[in-house]
Input
Amino acid sequence: MASPPGRTVEASRVSVVRLMVPTDANFSGNIFGGAILGEIDRVAYVAAVRHAGAQCVTASFDRADFIAPVHVGELVDFDAGLTFAGRTSMEVWVRVQAEPLSGGPRRLVVEAFVTMVAVDADMRPTPIPPLLLTNDAERRRFEEGRVRMEERRRTRGPRPR
Output
């Protein structure tokens, strides 16, 4: 089988903006971390499917760092892009920024790396296109992603058969 043609980082980039509402919040008016993580997983999934051209599953969340709280009534931008693509798996970097609905500066609130795996109809890993790198920043992030993927493989537990 011929390998699929490569795709650029921009071809699979995803950006979603959400208004945070009271049902997303705890009693302090801060948005639940789980609500943010759920949206991170969704945008990472879309970026991965766009790149792979196949269904994808979440294999791991790596370092979802909550840098600042998100409040009810803020606009939150979830921006996802691939940093690394292997044979069947991809690393998706998701940056989350929030801003007051009434205006004001955007601030970084969360960064996360999500590993997604392309799967076939039988839920078995399936090959994905190579990631075409178009600039030095993408090449640097690819190399950093490759190192993170090797570390994940080295430290993960045994897989069921």
User: Anything to note?
Assistant: The chain is about 25% helix and 35% strand. The mean pLDDT is 93. Helices lie at 9-12, 33-52, 136-155.
